[in-house]
Amino acid sequence: MLFAVSSFAQETKDRQKISDTFDELDNGKLVIRFFDALTGKPIQSGTVSIESIGEYETDFEGRIYFESAEENAVLKVKFTHSKYITSQFDVEIMAGTLFFNRFSISPKMPLGSLRAVLDWSDSPRDLDLHLVKKNSYHISYRNLRVAADGTAKLDRDDTDGFGPETITTTNVDNSAEYLIFVHDFTNQNSSSSNSLSKSKGSVKIYGRDNELIDVFKVPEDESGTYWLVCKIVEGRVVLLNKISSSEN
Fold this sequence. Notes:
Elements: H1 7-27, E1 30-36, E2 47-50, E3 54-57, E4 63-66, E5 73-81, E6 84-94, E7 97-98, E8 102-105, E9 114-119, E10 127-133, E11 138-139, E12 152-156, E13 165-169, E14 177-184, E15 202-207, E16 211-217, E17 226-233, E18 236-244
Parallel strand pairs: 1-8
Antiparallel strand pairs: 1-4, 2-3, 2-5, 5-6, 6-7, 9-13, 9-15, 10-11, 10-14, 12-13, 14-17, 15-16, 17-18
């Protein structure tokens, strides 16, 4: 099933953003939110460890609140939950505020699966995640949403900012080559646009034995509507991480 984001969901996201800003400015609290990568719903009762700061539990809105004495810092954050893949990544504080505070976490998967999860800010509204198996299928909202053999699918599409957008393949062919990229559909007719590079986009790659393999952040200050994230070659993640005017 494909979960399309409704206008109600968008209003909820905007309301969350305003609430988080209020907490930062008026209460001196920083807020991080965690969401299910397949449904987009908040994850409750997750354990969040922030290096040198403390350990927290997410509430019914998937939130934690914490304080930091640092105005500018990169925090090591670890998320654990019995139903989700343990995920560790960096969270950046700039001028006393969080550079980005919404993170989508993958539920645990069958062994042999690969999952890509895209998060970004509220702009551009519509970024599309793509998974291409060379000489085989091309999964995205505007291509195939489910592979003919059923082994790969677009789990969730998002058309109005923040994400998550998620693609899963349940049977990784270690003799094949895969390409993962992001297309800025909002600005598709403006190849000189730099909106994609300003999107605060990140792609998490999950696989192996239910592990977070890698986290890629969109390159900044570059023009182009395609973000070539990585390739999967013989089961290994090969770094690309560049902005381009095409998927090639």
